[in-house]
């Protein structure tokens, strides 16, 4: 999603998601011109979509990717 590039915008969105019990596996945010882009990897996409709809937060179409999880250990190759 895109939000205004000003302090507190990510916290506002994350607060709304937390209030709706949305569990995030990953989140990133960065400036993009006069706006900021927020990207989410929710544990449950349906719960996420219901939460943003209820909070009247506009999101962009869903993107697809992958998330790598695991322990980061020195010398670990797998």
Briefly, what is this?
The chain is α+β, with helices and mostly antiparallel strands and 78 residues long. The chain has helices at 9-19, 45-54; strands at 2-4, 24-32, 35-42.
Question: Can you describe what's shown?
Answer:
The chain has helices at 9-19, 45-54, and strands at 2-4, 24-32, 35-42. The protein is an alpha+beta fold and 78 residues long. The longest helix has 11 residues, at 9-19. The protein is globular. The mean pLDDT is 90.
* Arrangement of strands in the largest sheet: 1-3-2
DSSP strand (E) fraction? Answer: 25-35%
Mean pLDDT: 90
**Percent in helix:** 25-40%
Q: What is the topology?
A:
Elements: E1 2-4, H1 9-19, E2 24-32, E3 35-42, H2 45-54
Antiparallel strand pairs: 1-3, 2-3
């Amino acid at each position: 999603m895109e939000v205004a590039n000003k302090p507190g915008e990510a916290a506002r969105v994350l607060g709304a998601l937390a209030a709706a019990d949305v569990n995030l596996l990953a989140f990133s945010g960065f400036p993009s011109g006069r706006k900021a882009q927020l990207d989410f990897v929710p544990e449950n996409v349906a719960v996420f979509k219901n939460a943003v709809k209820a909070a009247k937060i506009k999101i962009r179409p869903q993107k697809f990717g992958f998330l790598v999880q695991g322990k980061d250990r020195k010398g670990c190759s797998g």
